[in-house]
Structures are given as C-alpha cells and as structure tokens.
Amino acid sequence: MKAKLDNPKVLSEIISIISELVTEVKIKFTETGMGIVAIDPANVALVSFRLPRESFSEFEAGEEVLGINLDNFKAVLRRAKSGSSLIMESEENILKIDILDKVKRSFSLALIEIEGEDKNIPKLDFHSQIHINPSDFVDAVEDCIIVADSCSFMAFPDKFIVGATGLNSARAEFSGDEVKIISGESKAKYSLEYLQKFMKASRIATKIIINFSTDHPVRLDFINNEAELSFILAPRVENED
Predict the structure, then answer these.
(1) Helices marked H in the chain — which ranges?
(2) How far is CA 75 from the centre of its chain?
(3) How many other β-carbons are positioned within 10 Å of the β-carbon of residue 157?
(4) How far apart are the first and last CA of the chain?
(5) 105 φ, ψ to 5°?
(6) Considering 153, 168, 173, 216, which has the largest number of Cβ atoms within 10 A of its Cβ?
(7) Helices marked H in 111-225 — which ranges?
(8) Residue-wise pLDDT tens for the chain (241 aa)?
C-alpha cells in the first residue's frame, strides 16, 4: 500500500476525534480507499470513517488491514503543517509516514495485532431524519451540557427539539425554516458525554444529518466533501424503580 495526501489536515482532525473513543483500530485499505469501523470499549458507540481514493493524489492499494495505535498515529499526523503533503506506505510490520515540506521528515510506526472480528456498520431503520447546520447543533448540545448528563431528541413533522432536564433545564427548538425535517414523531435520550466528543467533528463538516427513532440508536453523519464520518450511539435507557 502507498497513498499520498496533499492536504492531511482532515485526516489528522478525524483521527484525533476517533482516538477519544478507541485507542487501537484496524485501518482497511482497499481499491476504493481507506476506512475505519470501530466500537468503543463500553459497546455504546460505533464510529465509521472512510477516505475515498479520490481524496488522495496518489493511491496504490489492494486489500490490506493495518493494526494501528491511534495515539501514535495522531501524534505523527499532527506534525504535518499547513501546506505539507503526507505519504503513507506499508512495509512488512511497519507503517512508514513521510511528511514532505521544506524538509522531508520520516516516521515508522510498528503495526500491532488487534484481536476480534472485523466490525461492520449495522443496518438500522430510522423514523426521523434531520439536516442541520453544524454550529446550530453544537450550540444546542452545549446548552444541554450545562444542565444535565443526557439530552432528548424530539422530532415532529414541523419541528425538531433538543432538550435536557435536571434540576435545571435547557431546550432548543428548530422549525422547518432552520432545519430540513423528514419525520413523523420520534423521541429518544442520549448521553451527552458521547455527543460532546462527536461534536468535535463539526469542525470539518458542512452539514450534519441526524437519523433516529423512538428509544433507538441515533446515527450522526458529518458531511464533508473529502471524507465520510459517522457515529452510531445507543439510547440512554432510564432504569425503572
């Protein structure tokens, strides 16, 4: 495998976000591009990332899976400055990374064995879909963080609500003028600890698509012209006395 990125910033940002959920991943290289599917240790969240081959200025790959420590990978990617290009090349049990700028800098990362079966994106049916501006959704989630540790998504044909209630409460209501709504009625509650981590992907997104159903997982797609990044989060289920 050999792949060259002329703008590695998006990859660096996404790997940094994924590293907050998992520390080790299998990176798959195929003829169509580079991808990661991983589940966090608590089995609460799944992340899916794909960088299509069109995003690379050079790309030579068959079917290859590389086990990588994300903290190490993230640290190397952060060494690439604006205007640098990056080349990744696998050699036996090593991932070679060259950063090309005024000076060529080279790194070697040892590949690791990662146990367990390959993860797949589950097929889910959703009753509600919301298209929303990233900054608006981030504001709604951050409002909820002030008052609680979980928040509710409520979708209706004409509005979408993000709200949280503890000793205090917060609520953001969006009409069809602010967001695109494809929905009947759905309501579910989700962990703000995880949503706060996901929101960091808004930095590289032009739009967020929210798919969910009543008391079912939510799928958040962060839309970017260069890459595909999605999260699936299990609902928060309240214990009954």
Answers:
(1) 9-18, 70-77, 134-147, 192-198
(2) 18
(3) 11
(4) 55
(5) -115, 135
(6) 153
(7) 134-147, 192-198
(8) 999 999 999 999 999 999 999 999 999 999 999 999 999 999 999 999 999 999 999 999 989 999 999 999 999 999 999 899 999 999 989 999 999 999 999 999 999 998 877 778 889 999 999 999 999 999 999 999 999 999 999 999 999 999 999 899 999 999 999 999 998 899 999 999 999 999 999 999 999 999 999 999 999 999 998 999 999 999 997 654 3
230 backbone dihedrals φ, ψ, rounded to 5°: -135, 150
CATH of domain 128-233: 3.10.150.10
Both structure tokens of 163: 């709200």
220-239 in b/e form (b: 16+ CB < 10 A) is bbbbbeebbbbbbbbbbeee
Q: Do domains 2-110 and 128-233 have the same CATH topology?
A: no
Residues 6+ apart with CB under 8 A from 106: 96, 97, 98, 99
Q: Sketch the domain layout of the chain as residue ranges.
A: 2-110, 128-233
| Per-residue tokens: 18 | 């994924």
CB 218 within 8 Å of CB 155:
no
Is pTM beyond 0.90? Reply is yes
**What one-letter code names the amino acid at 174?**
F
Residue 26: burial class (beta carbons within 10 Å; 0-12, 13-18, 19+): middle
Helix (H) or strand (E) holding 128: strand 128-132
CA–CA gap between residue 129 and residue 223 (Å, rounded): 14
